[in-house]
Amino acid sequence: MAIKGGGLEKSSKASSEVPSSSLADIAFLLLIFFMVTTVFQADKARGIEWPEAEAAEKIDEKQKNILNVWMERDGTIYINDQPYPMEDVSAVVAPLYAASDRALVISIRGDREVPYQYMD
């Protein structure tokens, strides 16, 4: 300490910064505290009663009532594993659909590279 002007002078000034070295520790401890004290409730199963249709059309889903239509990347169309040109598809499918009394399920699948306009 130096005597200057008849009084005492402090050699260091007070710091105006807030110490943040322990801020990460405090945040981590708060995170752990809330993780430990949180109560998770198991989602209870709800007894949902699905509505039943009064007038539903039942489709007989036997293999004979399923028509598989596949389209290859090169444009070839297969109907039940038989190749057909694009122009003949409706001529082949329409009579089969009419003969099945509208109980025919048509499964349409295509290669990933087939443009969507052909699948529509």
Shape: elongated
**How many strand units?**
6
Range of helix content: 25-40%
Residue-averaged pLDDT:
77
Report strand %.
15-25%
Query: Within the largest sheet, what's the order of strands?
Result: 5-4-3-6
Fold and architecture overview:
The protein has 120 residues and is an alpha+beta fold. The protein has a domain at 63-119. The protein contains three helices and six strands, in the order E-E-H-E-E-E-H-E-H. The protein has helices spanning 23-37, 89-99, 116-119, and strands spanning 2-4, 7-9, 66-71, 77-79, 82-84, 105-110. Strand 4 (77-79) and strand 5 form a beta hairpin. The mean pLDDT is 77.
Key features?
120 residues; alpha+beta; 4-stranded mixed sheet; two-stranded antiparallel ribbon; 3 helices; 6 strands; 25% helix; elongated
Task: Please outline what is shown here.
By secondary structure, the protein is α+β, with helices and mostly antiparallel strands. It contains 3 helices and 6 strands; from the N terminus they run ββαβββαβα.
Task: List the topology elements.
Layout: E1 2-4, E2 7-9, H1 23-37, E3 66-71, E4 77-79, E5 82-84, H2 89-99, E6 105-110, H3 116-119
Parallel strand pairs: 3-6
Antiparallel strand pairs: 1-2, 3-4, 4-5
